[in-house]
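User: For documentation purposes, I need each entry recorded in a consistent format: the amino acid sequence on its own, followed directly by the corresponding structure tokens. There are two entries in this batch. Please keep commentary to a minimum and don't merge the entries.

Assistant: Recorded as requested. Entry 1:
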Amino acid sequence: MSDRQILIAGATSGMGRATARAAAAEGANLVLLGRDAARLEEIAKEASDLGAPNVTGIQADASDAAELTQALAPHAQLLSTVDTLINSIGVNLVNRAFLELTKESWGSMIDTNLNAAFNLAQVIVPMFRKRGGGLLINISSTAARKPDPSGAAYQATKAGVMAMTHAIMEEEWQNGIRATVILPGMTDTPLLEKRPTPPTEEMRAKALQPEDIAEACMFVMKLPARAHVSELMIQPANR
């Protein structure tokens, strides 16, 4: 993948970090976006050590459109070479039951899970158009497709990410742009700590690993431009 320039949002932990590691090991050039400066520096060094020829870390909160624009502005030329965006940003709440939600907690979930995906797509889709194509991968959740205990705000925002991804594909395929949404089931990431009752070790042992989602991203990225995966659902085999 030495000819690839991949932007990974949410690169500092979980699925984003695992995907950065997998792409780096295959020689991809990486632009890594995250909110935590220390963890961003860690994964940037890790990616370089694994074999990524060029790694650029950009600290920004993608849920804040103005902050994202300001952070990306000095890297405009580099971003114009990006051929793939992987958005792995996602959070959940401990107090997630519908009647526990407040206007503030509902709004925070929309900002992080849905608005960040929108803000990133608003930046990258016009760039893809200019370069004649590109691949957008949004990581959503199986919660977008079926009811589960993840909570109304999480399910609504992840369903929004899924719908937006399909809409972008519908509108942009003639411009050479492909958009894929990946729907993971329970995955052993820091997000599990946000459950009202953290999962047991036995439950964690049955969960997907971040590396499984990274492999899915690698599969989609390696397909020829003539092939399009619209939606990919991955669930633990033992439930």
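Entry 2:
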Amino acid sequence: MDETKIIRMAAGNNSTLGHLYIGNIFCCYILEDTVRDRKIPGRTAIPAGEYTLGLNTVAGMNARYSSRYASMHRGMVEVRGIPNFSLVFFHIGNYHTDTAGCLLTGSYWQLIDGDYRVLHSAAAYKLVYPLLVEQIEQGNDRMKVINQL
């Protein structure tokens, strides 16, 4: 069974940079909000742990992505079972201000003024989205989030 995991590697002032692996293969960078002991709505990374991935076809973001990525979109890849969080998706974005607790995909990263950002986010998303959907469809719907900060 291929394992999906995010390994968090570095913390900025308001951001967290991680690596997404599917089956022990590095797929892209992940940008999140800051890892905090106490949740601040829209400004906190999901806690380290093990979660379930699923496809959400009803959230508002789904309609935008369905239009934008019509040829491949099957629903937003959602991270489920997170305490005190809901509607956490993999999606495109560049800055920690784009996340609101979600996971942003990136092809490469930069550190600017103490915070990480990811770039070529849409290219990374187009790469990892079908891989994540395939994992879900094959029943490999578990994902680990590991802090190595």
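Summary note for entry 2:
The chain has one domain: 4-147.
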